[in-house]
Amino acid sequence: MAPKRQRAPTSPIERANRQTDKEFIANYLQPSVTSTLHPSSPAQLPPKPWTTEWSHPKTGTKYTISLVQSGKLSEEELKACFDLIKETSYDDYQNSKDKWQPRKKMEEMRSPDLRYVLVKDGSSGSIRAFTSLMPTYEEGQPVIYCYEIHLKPELQGSGLGSLLMGFHVTVATNLPPITKVMLTCFLSNKRALGFYKRHGFGTDDISPGPRKFRSGKVVMPDYVIMSKPVVRSSPLTNDKPSERKRSQTDAFGYHSPEKKTHEDERPELEPSTSSDGKS
Question: Where is the sequence biased in composition, kind Basic and acidic residues (predicted)?
């Protein structure tokens, strides 16, 4: 029996998610970007050109950078990323409504459309930082969702966090009809919130507000959904997206219950739950 032919992708985002890592880099991380961040942003985080090498500005230690689809991560790499999330974000998760749920987090990390940017020590090959992203639709909006971004202590404040976040912006600017970079962050993670705000992220319209029950009790959310708009300098065709659901996560190693989500001389925020998935 002849093998079934794969259905043709129906949107730019679906096409992007079907590409190999090599194709994804060539099409969305290497091209010259034709878009800019929204001019009203309080801070500018420009697109960053893709690179496979990076050196710590103070210690000179060399690191390698690679892009890997979730399904192509080795079990060792996946566990190293999981352990880094736990190291940087466990307390934020545990203090949230949904608590730390290792099985659920691992499931989320295996989402087939997720891509990981791994930063490894040039000598030992151990993972010292990573971020994960996904082109997707969030409540009908085409976005690049930063699921996680986590850095070991020795890399915080080094500029690496901004480089990794800049990769998200690069993909967003090179992939119409993407309109923004989005992430989730625990409200308890003041350091991460400060990092995102300094880089021009603000509260998104879909971020949850207080919930009032019939009893009069008011429950405040423990996370915020943040975004940074992208405006293209040249007209690009927008295909109509078909909405699809996805799990919620936050960036920089910040995670939120089902959708939760750092660079100057100050220590760089380590993405833990907002860009650390969306849950």
Answer: 15-24, 256-269
